[in-house]
Amino acid sequence: MRYLTFALAKGRLAKKTLALFEQMGITCEEAKDPDTRKLIFTNEEHKVRFFLAKASDVPTYVEYGAADCGVVGKDTILEEGRSIYEVMDLGFGKCRMCVCGPASAKELLSKNEIIRVASKYPNIATTYFREQKNQTVEIIKLNGSVELAPIVGLSEVIVDIVETGSTLRENGLDVLEEICPLSARVVVNRVSLKMEHERIRTILDNMNSLIKE
Ligand code: PRP
Question: pLDDT at residue 113 above 90?
Fold first, then answer.
């Protein structure tokens, strides 16, 4: 039997996903070592293999079939726009994609002013302002600590993930508009969904009953 390969977004999502697999009886002892630098873990009994990738690369591995399945945030799925199937909402990693900024920027949004928007998610930001709001904006791509942008005058607002809201609060920023809810999703390669349908279905069904508990 060939390995069924899962690409996991490294970090919290990967840890939670591996814990779910463990509950299903698919364990990877090596993955539990907090000091391990290994990227690939194998369960020989079930012929399942996991690898840890940077979140934004997970849809790429799945689209090309280097992984049959992936677990990654909805934010990354939307941003990467890859040709993959999203088959399940795992219900963890819940947060929201929002337009944020100082309260004073609310007016700039409602009056359709030409503004600058900083984001790690230029595609999500572009689609939102163009298609949902019909507002002309300049998108500035950043790679982290996006909350800095409106504070230091790089942009009027940001498009970013809000989880607890504490980063915003501690930097004097507010949620101005909500774009969409986010959570961890299972994605599947197009060919794998057909060729490995049975095995994938069984795993998804088991996951589903576990997350409903
Ligand atoms: C994310 C996000 C916000 C923060 C939101 O950043 O971009 O900055 O978490 O979480 P909160 O609402 O609970 O405060 P991350 O920690 O991934 O770091 P980064 O800004 O360097 O990308």
Answer: no
